[in-house]
Design goal:
Length: about 160
């Protein structure tokens, strides 16, 4: 009888502050991570942020932020709400809100974004259109080839 009502089993299900928690409860700030040395081919769908330090060849649909780390690379299609790119990307990139291209990034392809930051030193060889903050859902198609703000950019790193 003591086995089912013991104090020890209740301690396991309490968080640090003493409030009950369940193993199935999710954090509002979850992060998926694809570590360096891991390669994935196919379609990935994520509801929360995802960080890529390995490589993806295929499609990535994310309802949150995509982070491509310095060792990360994606070849294919990405649709997300926000993105930070420090590694390599080649393909079609649709970012609903903010695309932050860091100095170590190498991006080639077609980019659609609401807002854009490109740091000095980044390689940004793309056709870029800015869609003014439209929400991109994984099943939606963004107006390919539409230049809504005349934002076609072809830039090279500083000193090139």
């Amino acid at each position: 009888m003591a086995m089912f009502g013991s104090t020890n089993s209740k301690e396991v299900n309490k968080s640090k502050n003493g409030t009950p928690s369940s193993p199935s409860s999710t954090s509002s700030h979850s992060l998926n991570s694809l570590v360096q040395g891991t390669a994935v081919e196919g379609i990935i769908k994520a509801d929360s942020d995802i960080r890529v330090d390995g490589s993806i060849k295929g499609k990535l649909f994310c309802d949150a932020k995509v982070i491509i780390g310095p060792t990360g690379q994606i070849e294919g299609e990405v649709k997300c709400q926000n993105a930070v790119i420090e590694g390599k990307f080649d393909g079609v990139l649709n970012v609903a809100e903010l695309l932050n291209v860091r100095e170590t990034a190498q991006i080639t392809g077609d980019v659609t974004t609401g807002k854009l930051i490109v740091q000095s030193g980044a390689v940004f060889n793309v056709t870029c259109s800015m869609e003014g903050g439209k929400k991109i859902t994984p099943g939606s198609s963004i107006g390919a080839g539409k230049e809504t703000s005349g934002a076609t950019k072809e830039t090279q790193p500083a000193g090139a």
